[in-house]
Amino acid sequence: MVIFKKEPAVTRLSVISTQALAESRGGREREREEEEEEEEEEEPRVMEGTIITSHSLAELCENYFTLRHFSVGSYNTSVCNAGSVSTTVARYIDRTYDLLSSPSTAEALSRVAAVFEVVRAGVLVPLLKVAVVLCLIMSVMLVIEKLSMAIIALYVKVFRRTPEKIYKWAPLSQDPELGSLSHPMVLIQIPMFNEREVYQISIGAVCKLVWPHDRLIIQVLDDSTDLSTRELVQEECQKWSNKGRNIHYISRDNRNGYKAGAMKEAMDLDYVKKCDYVAIFDADHEPPPDFLLRAIPFLMHNSDIALVQARWKFVNANECIMTRIQEMSLNYHFKMEQQSGSSTMAFFGFNGTAGVWRIQAINEAEGWKERTTVEDMDLAVRASLQGWKFVYIGDLKVKSELPSSYKAYRYQQHRWSCGPANLFKKMTIDIIMAKKVSLLKKLFLLYNFFFARRIISHNVTFLFYCIVIPFSSFFPEVIIPKWGVFYIPTVITILNSIGTPRSLHLIIIWIFFENVMSLHRCKAVFIGLFEAGRVNEWVVTEKLGKALKTKQVSTAAKRSPNKFWQRCLFLELGMAVVLLICALYNFIYRSNQYFIFIFPLSLSYFLMGFGFVGTHIPAAK
């Protein structure tokens, strides 16, 4: 039963007719009393246990009524000479009050409350409970995967299971009779796209490699759309050609297939047929002079090895906190994932650069394919299914550059997350039907390499820590065990910090940074799985090269600073607001203290959303 009481007015309107207004209200009150007497005979229509009950609704209307008279009285005091305005305001407030206090409105609100309660109890709570169970299962799977990789890496380090001890390896020696013919023919490819700041790094380093010049062919694959950059790269190639290097400048009129398309076309040239191996370096990578002397012997003395992968070393790791955090993640990738895969299954994902391939293995795997944005991983999986083995050399390091702007890093992570998910979808049947690999290796590829590391890892971070845990604050019926909220994340965090001991003090920042990035990785995974709009988007990671040291001041002087709104990222800001609401609700109404985690997470989204992370390159005038 809904009963609305109307208290006497506390003040009178001095401008409008008080008597007329009182008569009008009295008539409405008599009509309202008659309606209430009729409703007393009917059954209550509001379900018990609803969030918004008839009693609470009546209190709401009474409070509004009191506020209404207070507002009118206050308004009368300040605008006593504005009769028409006062009349309009009074009528507007009366109509609003009548609308809220009418039985039909109360009944509608009660029905909405009842429906919401049914949806909450029958849909939202069960769904959230299922999500908690699934996230806990994925968390356990992920922590087991990371523990297994850590144990293998520890075993390799303690017992010094280096590649030189596992495989045949002997240094190349100069045969006086054969001369340079004792060295195999090696092709080097340097794909680039508008790499004005770094093109000299890779070309110069490759041309300085210790290897007979007549046994080395260098291809600079320039897909640049900037004509001035093309001219600079071509001049650099001509400079080294004049010094006796066998270097070829190759450009295309289109970017079909992007990096994979450029390398595929270059591999079809006639002079490549006399080469045995191909080394690949991105434009910002600087191999040491003895790179080929360290890597090629593995391929020469082991006929079943297809790929030798070196480790990356970062020249700008100390540029900002964001690059320090990237260093932590990539060091873990090399020291744990690549090392464990090489030591157990002789398989890991090719990193796209700083590696040497056996050309025969590339041909048997049907060469470079353009179907995904991770052509390097695609080739590695197909070559592995042909029975080839891979070797990772952890102490052979190639200098490279980390993206220092948040925008560039987001694009890179989208490609690195979307591509593997899309490849997983395309190659699942091929892996299952492969005849040249064991069942154990098939399981490793499907579960460990793809599902656990490329699907679960990205999804559980965002869904569990950025969605399920924060939103559980609104549902006290949903209980998350402490081991899932605290213990498992602690173990994962400790394992990720092993790769970079010098950055241990940044581990808390790393946690929140990775949680924010999980938004884009999770989105990219679903785009790859369902082949949505940006599935094949390829944005070359922006590199600064020498500008980091020599051109920052002059470049900034020639460019106008970015406007504040241009730096804002609304997806991050939207998540920040949602998480802030969850944190405030948890702080006020719940006792599980999740707000201790949710508040800093919301702040992290705000910082990245407003563009306070990474370096910013001013926009060109």
From TrEMBL:
<keyword id="KW-0333">Golgi apparatus</keyword>
<feature type="domain" description="Glycosyltransferase 2-like">
    <location>
        <begin position="277"/>
        <end position="484"/>
    </location>
</feature>
<feature type="transmembrane region" description="Helical">
    <location>
        <begin position="130"/>
        <end position="156"/>
    </location>
</feature>
<keyword id="KW-1133">Transmembrane helix</keyword>
<comment type="similarity">
    <text>Belongs to the glycosyltransferase 2 family. Plant cellulose synthase-like A subfamily.</text>
</comment>
<dbReference type="GO" id="GO:0071555">
    <property type="term" value="P:cell wall organization"/>
</dbReference>
<keyword id="KW-0808">Transferase</keyword>
<keyword id="KW-0812">Transmembrane</keyword>
<keyword id="KW-0472">Membrane</keyword>
<keyword id="KW-0961">Cell wall biogenesis/degradation</keyword>
<feature type="transmembrane region" description="Helical">
    <location>
        <begin position="594"/>
        <end position="613"/>
    </location>
</feature>
<feature type="transmembrane region" description="Helical">
    <location>
        <begin position="568"/>
        <end position="588"/>
    </location>
</feature>
<dbReference type="GO" id="GO:0000139">
    <property type="term" value="C:Golgi membrane"/>
</dbReference>
<feature type="region of interest" description="Disordered">
    <location>
        <begin position="21"/>
        <end position="47"/>
    </location>
</feature>
<dbReference type="InterPro" id="IPR029044">
    <property type="entry name" value="Nucleotide-diphossugar_trans"/>
</dbReference>
<feature type="transmembrane region" description="Helical">
    <location>
        <begin position="486"/>
        <end position="513"/>
    </location>
</feature>
<dbReference type="GO" id="GO:0051753">
    <property type="term" value="F:mannan synthase activity"/>
</dbReference>
<dbReference type="InterPro" id="IPR001173">
    <property type="entry name" value="Glyco_trans_2-like"/>
</dbReference>
<feature type="transmembrane region" description="Helical">
    <location>
        <begin position="462"/>
        <end position="480"/>
    </location>
</feature>
<protein>
    <recommendedName>
        <fullName>glucomannan 4-beta-mannosyltransferase</fullName>
        <ecNumber>2.4.1.32</ecNumber>
    </recommendedName>
</protein>
<feature type="compositionally biased region" description="Acidic residues">
    <location>
        <begin position="32"/>
        <end position="43"/>
    </location>
</feature>
<dbReference type="Pfam" id="PF13632">
    <property type="entry name" value="Glyco_trans_2_3"/>
</dbReference>
<dbReference type="GO" id="GO:0047259">
    <property type="term" value="F:glucomannan 4-beta-mannosyltransferase activity"/>
</dbReference>
<keyword id="KW-0328">Glycosyltransferase</keyword>
